[in-house]
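Case study 2.
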Amino acid sequence: MRSNFVHHIVATAEYPDKEKINEYKQQLRERILNGVSKCNRAMFIFDEADKLPEKLLGNNHGGKSIAKLALSHHQAGSAREDLTLNNFERMLMEAAYNKPGKCQ
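Prediction:
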């Protein structure tokens, strides 16, 4: 996506050293604050979020659900680009709500 308001972050390229977690937290915080200050609907895409240093993000609770939905979509013969936010919203809300210690 080519937009100043879509930020694609590749975990293994941008956050390779687990020892620099505090530095990465500050960098990511500034990047997000800067992005949303320019556009309150800025989008941040975390590629390979499961490979981010632990504690950089709060969690990746929806990762398995996203992968499962994408796989079933692919197996049905549909293109990945045809997935929309609506495909994910309810599933992610349920995944977050049902996670032990979260929203319960």
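Helices lie at 11-14, 21-38, 63-75, 85-98.
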